[in-house]
Amino acid sequence: MPSGRIPAARRPHIIRHDQPYGRNRHGDRYVLRCMIEHRVNRDRVTGARVIRTALPAEARVIADLHVRARSTYYPGGLPDPGTDWAARWLDAIERPDGQVLCVVEHGRITGIASFRRAEGSPAGTVKLFQFHVDPDHWRAGIGGALHTACVEQWHADGTRTATLDVHVGNRRAQLFYARQGWVPDPENPPAEDDHHLYLRLSLSGE
Q1: Do residues 154 and 182 lie in contact, with contact meaning Cβ atoms separated by under 8 Å?
Q2: Which domain range does residue 31 map to?
Q3: Residue 124 maps to which CATH number?
Q4: How high is the pLDDT of residue 8?
Q5: What is the count of structural domains for the chain?
Q6: Helix (H, G, I), strand (E, B), or coil: what is residue 206?
Q7: pLDDT tens, residue by residue, 30-87
Q8: Which site in 76, 97, 128, 182 is 20 to 30 Å from 170, CA atoms measured?
Q9: How far apart are CA 54 and CA 90, in angstroms?
Q10: How far apart are CA 158 and CA 204, in angstroms?
């Protein structure tokens, strides 16, 4: 996943909207304060990269992308093969306290991100639970564009700190997050036998 300034030709097409966060009246789906684009509008943007909220009907497609991405750093097979990921993603999309963003190019979802405030976390903190780019579309600026959209939304929400955990074997993701400004979380050092690293991103400029 590349870092740095996104070339103009690859910058996401983001439709801005003043509607407050919550469910809207069109399809009972979630909207963003600063990023919303209705399905009918998306279809009019030919060839552009669109970042928008995910729809419940897209849970299966998103789950398939998720599994393909995770399989790249679990060479021995996924550790939870029996998990119904489509149901998990549907739950994430429909949660009133969470947000799922997706990158759409030429009608195909190529990147996904899911975040919300974790249970027990302090106010002003958000956790990035999932962040994946379709392996067939790596090195196309998708990860950088999606990360920028997440940060933009967190700023709009008044979030001060973001956290995530990344698998120790996923070196590619670790390097990507480091380029985006994430650092090891001093409040959550990994245990000796832990399979994840815990990262933190300051959104307050500290």
Answers
A1: no
A2: 8-202
A3: 3.40.630.30
A4: 39
A5: 1
A6: coil
A7: 334 334 343 333 333 445 899 999 999 999 999 999 999 988 888 666 667 778 999 9
A8: 97
A9: 10
A10: 9
